[in-house]
Predict the 3D structure of the following.
Amino acid sequence: AQSVTQPDIHITVSEGASLELRCNYSYGATPYLFWYVQSPGQGLQLLLKYFSGDTLVQGIKGFEAEFKRSQSSFNLRKPSVHWSDAAEYFCAVATNNAGNMLTFGGGTRLMVKP
Amino acid sequence: DGGITQSPKYLFRKEGQNVTLSCEQNLNHDAMYWYRQDPGQGLRLIYYSQIVNDFQKGDIAEGYSVSREKKESFPLTVTSAQKNPTAFYLCASQTGAGNTIYFGEGSWLTVV
């Protein structure tokens, strides 16, 4: 069965610093990969997704992610973090052609220091 | 505005009672989903429905039931058989294969 690991439960960065959130997946074939963001007590918002093509994917709010097949990774990055980026981030993988059966990682909570 | 509406936002239930969480979408999406989220954990799929009058169990369906009588509605019933029902419940929908899955704002259920 597929699985998603987000090794960092909590991350704290200073405002203006760069950010990288790690995501590793386990699946035999090419997966469909997603990053979602969740503000406290709210639903999830899609940041970006990878289905095929260019392995560097641009998303909303200045985020990007890179799919590395050899490392089974899909890390999320942002060059300069803003205080409003403080939230919980979830990596997810879908393993069917419909891209709808999502398996989520445990999440990474991002805190931003002023 | 189009979107997914979940209600109520907060719900308290006594042990032994069933409770139904509402999920309505006006996005004309075919597929709908229910996820459960526990603190410090990711989301786990409870049930999903690809079309009206059809639904499938997800990873943690025990103690839950759903119906899909209308395209825009996918209510979730948390039954007394659910051992640990206190959680945050998220409804989601999708227009079709490969498209983005959109989430509602969630419902907090607390068993007292």
